[in-house]
């Protein structure tokens, strides 16, 4: 059976997604747990998956990912609202970075992806990874993980589907 893979995408229909401040520290230099003070806007929505300015996931999504792949390293970042002291816990993570696109992938002149075609041999049996060697960062997941996330009602994320390079099978 041919595996299907999807990109984890932040839901663009939500207008007031919480945007944490940029953390300039590289992942390897971050402490296991850190606290940042923020000024949260009253209508900000706290979602399970944030892609800008960096990748963050909620506690709920982190628990699911730990069950899927226990090798994913996580570090906690708690944002505390200065106005009322309310904490918001998120996790930064480090995924394996793999060049899994095939020669049939199409790129824009600036190097960004126009059409991604995955190379089945490069993907092998990965369940979650970051697409490497492309201009923009993308997180891809296997169908069974995408279904698991959807069953648990994760908020503010959806899946973009990428096709396989059928000639590799």
Structural class: alpha+beta
Helix content: 10-25%
How would you characterize the largest beta sheet?
6 strands, mixed
Which sequence of SSEs, written as H and E, runs from N to C?
EEEEHEEEEEEHEEHE
Amount of beta strand: 25-35%
Annotation field: number of helices? 3
Mean pLDDT: 83
How many beta-strand segments?
13
What global shape is seen? globular
Low-confidence stretches: 162-169
Total number of distinct structural domains: 1
Our measurement of the CA-to-CA distance between the termini, rounded to an integer number of angstroms, reads: 10 Å
In what order do the strands lie side by side in the largest sheet? Answer: 7-11-12-1-13-10
**Cα radius of gyration in angstroms:** 17 Å
